[in-house]
Design brief:
With 472 residues, this protein is α+β, with helices and mostly antiparallel strands. It is built from eight helices and 23 strands. Helix 2 packs across helix 4.
Length: 472
Amino acid sequence: MPCQNPKRAVACASLLAMLALLCGCGIDSAPPHRSPAPATPAVPSSTITASLVVPASQITRLANNATEYQLADIKDKPIKCGPLSCRLDLHAERTGPLSVQGSGDTLDTRIPFRTQAAISSRGFLSFLHGQAEGAGVIETHSRIAISPTLQLNSVTNGTVTLDNGHLRVGPVVTNIAQLWNDNEDSLSRPLWRALDKQVAKLPLRPRVARFWADAFRPIRASRSPATWLVLRPEKLAVAEPQWRDGALVLSLALTGRAQMKVQDAPPDNAPAPLPRAGSLQSPAGAFSVAVPVLLPYDRAAELALAALQKKPPRLAGLAVTFSRLEFLPSGQDIIVTTRLCADPKWDLFGWFASCGDVSLRGVPVFDAAQKVIRVDGLRYDVGSAGPVLQAIGALGRSDLTRLLQSKLVFHEAGPIDHLEDQIVQLLAKPQGREVSVSAHVETLDISSFTWTADGFWALVSAKGQVSATLNL
């Protein structure tokens, strides 16, 4: 017998021991010890502040609607003219284009006009009458405010300047400017109210309501896998309107929470009713968006296993194949458990393969420079020293660690860069012809990273500028 020789007997014994190890198919090590995974961090609120700009041309058009045909038209109004009882007919109309400008919360309008007045006495002196014409300028000052229901309100007053067109009715001599001043309640105040009515007609609430509702619409962030950027607005705040750079500017802020969802169909995100607006104190025109991004463990395991199976390695002369890989979160680290088989290269039929589960521990980190998630510091779990690791030996175990660590790298540069475009798209989503919105991302980075019970969790924070123009 070949093994009867003492030297050969030792070799045979070693071979038999090795074969016993290699035939240890299906022998599993004890499950690794785990503690509760870190809790999912609270997601900060996202705030979008924008300025709705109403150009002066739009306000001028509204003021034109209130003054286009006539400014005043009085028929047979009783008035006092000295010792006599008189009746007044007065008609006033514009003589040229009005101008609109403003300062702070005040809107100023200048209206050139002309007026015609006729006075006649009554009773036995009815044959006494007089006529006059005058030209002048109406200057109004409208203080504009906004209510929590997004209704624009204004309080208008003003002054009327007229030349002295004289009127004589018998012994009574007056002028048209005096007549206007004496009848201000009938002449000026209706004009003030007409201008206030036009300001209230600015369709601000419907435009903001559409802007609010459209913010709930999910935006597709990627197609494979299907990922959606979802914003859930919660609060609305507005600042008092201000006149800046030849336009009426309304600053508003939308506050809510954003998230990424991985699913084929668009997520259900029905718009909430438009809330009453709070008071906005901070400057408008900027946004700060925080979006949590989750790489689920099953998706990460699928990517890592595909990389390992693409080109099966050889360790310590053994062909190593991987059939399963999973991530098990723990409090201080994460456990990577894989099912592998080690088979000698001369074993053509796999009869001497040694298969089992191997568990390693490491700490997930995010490399901001490379925009990758990786598992650092891989080491074997204490209970993972099973037959399969004994089969590949110490050198093979070291090579296996390096191999696994090189495959546990998940590139997030593409999704993160793509997310920047999606944030711009979310903010600058077309609103039809009424509202034009533009946005620019200034900074975008990972502000927080951890692992949770569900996957690798990162918080993407973006800041930038946004502007909107209201076209009526």
